[in-house]
Specification:
alpha/beta, Aspartate Aminotransferase, domain 1, four-stranded mixed sheet, four-stranded antiparallel sheet, 7 helices, globular, transferase, Aminotransferase_I/II_large, PyrdxlP-dep_Trfase_small, Aminotransferase class I/classII large domain-containing protein
Amino acid sequence: MQLHKQHRIKMVFLNPNFQNPNGSLLDLERRRRVLEISSYYGIPIIEDDPYSLTAFDKTHVSTLKSMDQNGTVLYVSSLSKIVASGLRIGWIFGPQTVIERLADAKQQIDFGHSIIPEWIATQFLSSEDFSIHMHKLRDSLALNRDKIVFSLYDQLDDQVEFLIPEGGIHIWCKVKEDVSEQQLFKEAIKRGVVYVPGSVFGTQKGYARFTFGRAKEEHIHEAISRFADALRSFKKGK
């Protein structure tokens, strides 16, 4: 990665742990290089980290912020993916001056968050129930991940490529054959299957993000079967 001093990059937004949409984990060497570049050019990093606690092998996943020696990383996380999206609880770690300015901006926009969700979150995070919940959540997500991987191999073995995620709630698939993303999506919707086409994330066409976080295990195989049927139907109609 090469940059020139005259390039005016204001900030970089990264999702290094089980990235959305592709589920990848940024390796240690690349993390170090990103931090070196950030420090050298004075480019702040926004680290969005909603998934690191979902590692299926239950190992600790390091954050960029934990490696930050120069205060260039602003760390953001929340309970939306691991507890309940309705709580609307998140947090930020960063330099005190930045936090003060953000707190002031938030207060001017929404006049502060309701104290009740904050109290609920505080009680839950400080209780033994949180670790029990995370243990169950990781097991459930790993089971769903295994189910969707099996279904993709079973239904679409030679028609898609995908990375098997080690955490998070998404699996990122590439449809090998050149197909119309919009038409395939329409065929899938007709069969009751909804996913996110790759172009929504600004990627090349032919990708699909399947989310297994809240899916019921018994529905996953049927959903992939219907997607496979949509793909076959679309190909026959070409």
